Amino acid sequence: MRLNGAPKSYIVNGNFEQGSLGWGNQNAIQKEDDGNHYVINNYNWLIKQDLNLLANKTYEIGATIKRGTATGPARIVITFLDVNGKRLNKYYNINYTNQSEGWEEIPHQSITVPENAAKARIYLLSKDKKGYYCFDNIRIIEAIASENKE
Asked: Does residue 147 register a pLDDT over 80?
């Protein structure tokens, strides 16, 4: 799969420059000395955003992360809900451990929305129960297949 041109991200305020808009946890927003905003979270499910993704479509997820005090990986979880708000069995659990102490781009991950999904929800957290991770530049974009279509 390859990214589609200059795609639109389905994440609201994925760079956190508008505070907690779309995420709902003002206390988790941090600011670096250079003015860059980002969010921090430990092992809890409070940093989340509901998304309107289309069923049977494939999307790619990108993010920039930095290890805080966590010893384990950062975790990005995508769940799906049906029209009644019930969580579906299908979900994606993306784990990434920083290779350095600075910001790192995670490898793009592909997800496909299940047929009966009415809504998707993304969570940003640490898999480590005692430490935290920093998240920035969260993106979900439509992916297109690289094979030729006739």
From this structure: no
Please give the single-letter amino acid code of residue 91.
Y
8 confidence band (pLDDT: 50, 70, 90): confident
Report CA-CA distances (Å) from 31 to 56, 62, 120.
37, 21, 28
Token output for 119: 């809504």
CA distance 7 to 118: 22
Please spell the DSSP secondary structure of the chain, one letter per residue: -EE-SSPPPSSTTTT-TTTTTTT--GGGEEE-TTS-EEEEE-SSS-SEEEE---TT-EEEEEEEEEESS-SS-EEEEEEEE-TTSPEEEEEEEEEE--SSSS-EEPPPEEEE--TT-SEEEEEEEESSSS--EEEEEEEEEEEE-SS---
Query: Over the stretch 89-100, which tens digit does the pLDDT of each residue have?
Result: 999 999 999 999
For position 150, what pLDDT does the model report? 41
Name all domains of the chain by residue range, CATH numbers in brackets. Answer: 2-144 (2.60.120.260)
